[in-house]
Amino acid sequence: MVDEPQTATARAHSNIAFVKYWGNRDHRLRLPANSSISMNLADLHTTTTVAWDDDLKHDTLTINGAIAADSALERVRNHLDMLRARFKTSRYARVRSTNNFPMGTGIASSASAFAALTAAACAALGLELPERELSTLARRGSGSAARSIPSGYVEWHAGDSHETSFAESFAPPEHWDLIDIIAIVSRAHKRTSSSAGHETADSSVLQPARISSAAERLRVVKSAIMSRDFEQFASVVEEDSNLMHAVMMTSDPPLFYWAPLSFAIMKAVRYWRTIEKLQVCYTLDAGPNVHCICAASDANEVSARLRSLSGELDILRSSAGGGACVLSLRD
Ligand code: PMV
Which of 41, 102, 107, 119 makes an SS bond possible with 318, Cβ 3.0 to 4.6 Å? Predict the structure, then answer.
């Protein structure tokens, strides 16, 4: 290890998957059942400072200024334990993390959180790791965090070992001006975390069908992104989201993430695209909020239509964003 600074601050963006990750072939290593594709979200990010400190007796964590305990702290400690074991340090860390998007909006922050934590923790140890290795390490905290390390449009190769399961960029953010308009249907914290959901995915009889057809969807979505073919992109993105939710709904216990308003928005989005020719499609993660992915030229119209569907919707908006980066280093 080189002579190291002790404190580093890093930033990473959240991402939205177009071909989803759901289910693991190895839960401990978070090796996913299938490869996935996503876009980083420029306007939703986590900034994390890690200070390794000889005087600390245990790790500490604050999120948006509040001291974190329980499961959030435990997950961060487990991740730091993994990094300590790998890089042979016994020091504990003070971790300060802030999200620029409103907390409690039901927007998964684990991808940006574990990508920023990994980047800051490694930089503060004086390590300058290749992007690929950072991605594998971020994956251990939250699978989708692997995709928040590289920039723009990203593919996570499922791989079959810790070293071969990593994400890499296949197009920069400016390649295609897609906008994610997120309809916040519920601010409630999800009752079943995605980590727990991954463990039940194999109990659905539909999961083998979803997994065996995922490579073809990935091929089509990637080629649609490369050629900026919205029609081809939209139909497979919606199909992939529906397939993941079909697996969730048929798992034991079943997971029902859609709310009535989510479903109303999904149907409206399809109508706007197929009948009214707006370039927009939907995708949902492990929650009821609907990500409406649209061409930049239709973004204002889509926002206005979402607002007219329900006056109670909060709406977030983001364009494609860059990868994780270190903002500062200090001794
Ligand atoms: O990274 P996790 O364990 O939070 O899993 C993410 C799962 C989904 O958001 C539902 C899909 C995805 O590929 O991001």
Answer: 41
Q: Is 258 exposed, middle or buried (0-12, 13-18, 19+ CB in 10 A)?
A: middle
Element at 82 (helix H, strand E): helix 70-87
pLDDT digits (tens, 9 = 90+) for 190-216: 677 888 999 999 999 999 999 999 999
Q: Is the CB of 30 under 6 A from ligand 1?
A: no
Beta strand 36-53 with 7-19 is antiparallel
Neighbouring C-alpha atoms within 13 Å toward the C-beta of 33: 21
> Taking Cα atoms as reference points, which of 153, 157, 124 lies closest to residue 143?
157
Q: How far is the CA of 179 from the centre of ligand 1 (A)?
A: 19
286 touches ligand 1 (CB under 6 Å)? yes
Distance 233 CA to ligand 1 centre (A): 20
| Whether the model pTM is above 0.85 | yes
Phi, psi angle pair for 27, to nearest 5°: -70, -40
- 22-28 long-range Cβ contacts below 8 angstroms, 24+ apart: 22/197, 22/198, 22/201, 22/207, 22/210, 22/244, 22/247, 22/248, 23/198, 23/201, 23/202, 23/207, 23/211, 23/247, 24/143, 24/198, 24/199, 24/201, 25/158, 25/160, 27/198, 27/199
Which structural domains are found in the chain, ordered by start? Answer: 7-174 (3.30.230.10), 177-319 (3.30.70.890)
pLDDT of residue 69: 83
In short, whether 34's Cβ falls inside 6 Å of ligand 1 is: no
Q: For residues 25 and 32, is the Cβ–Cβ distance under 8 A?
A: yes
Q: For 75-132, how does the pLDDT look when each residue is reduced to its tens digit (9 = 90+)?
A: 999 999 999 999 999 999 999 999 998 776 667 689 999 999 999 999 999 999 999 9
101: which 2 tokens? Answer: 């998007």
**Which amino acid, residue 108?**
A
